Write the structure tokens for this entry.
Amino acid sequence: MKVAVLSPLTWRTPPRNYGPWEQVASVLTEALVKKGIDVTLFATGDSVTHAKLQSVSQKPLGEYSRDAKVAECLHISNLMEKAGEFDIIHNHFDFLPLTYSRLIQTPILTTIHGFSSEEIIPVFKKYNARSHYVSISNSDRHADLTYAGTIYNGLDEQQFHIGKGEGNYLLYFGRIHPHKGAHEAIQIAIQSNKKLILCGFIQDETYFKEMVAPFINDSSVVYLGNVCPQQRNQLLGDALALLHPISFEEPFGLSVAEAMMCGTPVIAFERGAMKELIIDGRTGFLVNNIQEAVGAVSNIKSICRCECRKHALNKFGSEAMAVNYINLYRQIIKRRDSL
């Protein structure tokens, strides 16, 4: 079986810091290679992989100035012009590659990592009969689309080690944006009388300046910026809990799975996929507001960190993700060959 994995160009695959879609594409690619699958990764030229690498853009768009549309067109067309060399194309690049699906014979499987807006749905609908869609959670399915299955995002378990939570702090790990709840995390920490460490790149400058920065004091509220994977593992493992007070229907939440992989329980607002990721009372707490979150902090030591790690390995391990995708690849290829 020859598989082409199409990763985004915004960040390196795997990302140096932030880059959830690139991270998932990387974890899957490496897991497929370990299982003997012939994989070609289409990504930036500086990407790190054991698969074959194809690239038309040496550096990520997020790290230097270049016309994104031009780079994306060259990137996608580079794969599509080689489509006949592969048994299946696994698309992690959102809706644009779907526009090629009727022009090639190779089936395209698209992992839908979320919908940026309702305006992109017509593209998915147009190619619904020709393409194959995977949702990353059952809660992130659009009623107008048909799905081949739900496969949860996987993590490279070797990068995450169980910690003891001895740092005596709460952790916020994600984009600094109103939807992700950095301000709410600060309020939870203050009312719990706990130190809070904030990590993540600033996506909304106004929100950061008005709602987050005034509380940063380098003692009880600390902002570390966009940390690297090595720092991430240490910070997650030493935290008492990860705070995830989101205000939108999040399709997955990699930091939630990462925290549990480090044995760290998660306190999250019950929105989006949170009820699929967290076992309430066993690997964290699902709450509805700041007050309930504060109560959960006081009970956080009732959660077994080994149980968090075990849950994450079973549900979000790279092996589980790879096996599920390989089975789906085979089903799609068999269906095509029978036509």
Observations:
- The mean pLDDT is 96.
- The CA atoms of residues 133 and 148 lie 6 Å apart.
- The two ends are 18 Å apart (CA to CA).
- The first helix runs from residue 20 to 34.
